[in-house]
């Protein structure tokens, strides 16, 4: 059994872990503060009279690290967040109250995997490749699935194979594959609940273009109220051709946060 396939023995439920391990030095977007983990108190630093001791660690981190979800508070366009909320009034305790990650209800929903390299007959897409509407529809047809309102749609590019290589996963000169604005419109027109991918920013990053232009973020988060999930590990689902499953995700309940690290599961 692959180490990505966990057996929940008591319930007899088979799940696939779609989340990444949080580690110092893992690849992450330059847009966000680094994940950092230290051990300020080690065993033996304080020893109780009975000989016992405890180690206590500490993390400091942006909320958009590892596998994570973007709340609607994350992005604005021309001064407005989703629903016309004025971005200038956003701040912890301000308008983030309406759109922060604490407002995302735990998800137990139908999940759909769209495996784009499989329909294109390749191992993984190239940096900067745009996943088109035709790709999305071809994947649905090839896999015999239909995307419906309320689904969580996960789009595989195969780029996750580069996660352990660090910088190449983030893009830079090569860019990163993903949907562009038309693909995001396609998802929005189907009224999905959330859309995810196995890449750092969900959408296509142009070669050399960095993380500057993010039109799919605007379409999904600002215009449509659709959450985005990034840096998923979709390799096990693809390997086992699991295209339909129950998707489970619980964000951290951080008041007013723009995102949260998550550990989503596919119940298969
Ligand atoms: C990027 O860095 C673009 O990811 P996020 O959407 O989390 O900001």
- Separation, N- and C-terminal Cα atoms: 14 Å
Provide the structure class: alpha/beta
Strand content: 15-25%
Shape: globular
What can you tell me about this protein's structure?
This is Kynurenine formamidase. It holds the Pfam family Cyclase. It comes from Rhodococcoides corynebacterioides. The chain is an alpha/beta fold and 268 residues long. The protein has one domain: 3-Layer(bba) Sandwich (Glucose Oxidase, domain 1), CATH 3.50.30. 18% of the residues lie in helices and 23% in strands. The protein contains 7 helices and 14 strands. The strands form 3 sheets. The protein has a 10-stranded mixed sheet. Strand 1 and strand 2 (13-17) form a beta hairpin. Helix 5 (181-189) runs parallel beside helix 6 (215-224). The longest helix is centred in the middle third of the chain and has 11 residues, at 133-143. It is globular, with a radius of gyration of 19 Å. The relative contact order is 0.22. The model has no long low-confidence stretch (mean pLDDT 93). The chain binds acetylphosphate. Acetylphosphate binds next to loops.
Summarize this entry quickly:
This protein has 268 residues and is α/β, with parallel strands linked by helices.
Brief descriptors of the model:
binds acetylphosphate; 268 residues; 18% helix; alpha/beta; Glucose Oxidase, domain 1; ten-stranded mixed sheet
Task: Give the arrangement of secondary structure elements.
Blueprint: E1 5-8, E2 13-17, E3 36-41, E4 56-60, E5 68-70, H1 96-99, E6 107-115, H2 116-120, E7 130-131, H3 133-143, E8 152-156, H4 167-170, E9 178-179, H5 181-189, E10 194-197, H6 215-224, E11 227-230, H7 235-239, E12 244-249, E13 259-261, E14 265-267
Helix pairs in contact: 5-6
Bound molecules: acetylphosphate.
